[in-house]
Amino acid sequence: PTSSVTASDANIAAFKREFKDPDNYVNRLYEDLERYAKAWERGGYYFPGASIIQTSGSGKSRAMRELAKHGVYVVYCSFMKGDASGFPRRSDIAEELLRPETSFLAYFLACGGVVDNYIKDGVEPDKVFEQTIGSLQRKFWNEVSENMKAVEQDAKKKEKEAEKARLDEVNSSKASVPPPEASVQISKKRKKPVGSAGKRSQSVQKSANKKQ
Predict the structure, then answer these.
(1) pLDDT 10s digits, 163-200
(2) What is the pLDDT of residue 55?
(3) What pLDDT, in 10s, does the model give residues 7-24?
(4) Residue 161 zone, left/alpha/beta (φ > 0; ψ -120 to 50; rest)
(5) What is the secondary structure of 40-106 as a DSSP string?
(6) Is the peptide bond before 100 cis (omega within 30 degrees of 0)?
(7) Are 205 and 197 in contact (CB under 8 A)?
(8) Nearest to residue 113, comparing CAs of 67, 157, 146, 78?
(9) Contacts of 129 (CB under 8 A, 6+ apart)
(10) pTM higher than 0.85, yes or no?
(11) Of the four listed, 84, 100, 165, 206, which is most buried by Cβ atoms within 10 Å?
């Protein structure tokens, strides 16, 4: 007989089963990430992050969920194909993030802002993780999307202010230097007295010669 349980249902059930970790992998992962975070310094590394790479179905997503249970705030975003049967399913914000004009810096900052609000509201890390993958994920990703817009607008505003300050500085430096026409006039005015004195000395010399 054909089972009424779909692959997706089976994956959801498997994802939510009791986690067994006899070799203490999650704690080791947590300690490694904490060590990496402490070792990071600006200029020494390209980005304060690490990659977790393994084959499909090996437990990467489940490890992230267990990290959330260890007190780590995890924002889980899936780019799985929309018609795939895996779990966690494709995130509601995936399409927006895959647009060429999307700034992932704005995305990271926006996620940080949303999570910060959850922390202030006393929401535990495992509850935040569930919001990123469960039935409430649309609300979570809408907040992130709105935050991204605010971050990008703020960045554009600061860029315009910086450009204006640069132009003001350039214009100010130009104003302190006299224009070329003024320099020529000053030079001409200075040469006239010198030339007049020279002519007077020549006239005096000639008249002296005549007297002799």
Answers:
(1) 999 888 888 877 766 666 655 555 555 555 555 545 55
(2) 85
(3) 578 888 888 888 888 899
(4) alpha
(5) --BTTBS-S-------TTSSHHHHHHHHHHTT----------TT---SS---TTHHHHTSTT--HHH
(6) no
(7) no
(8) 146
(9) 64, 65, 68, 74, 76
(10) no
(11) 84
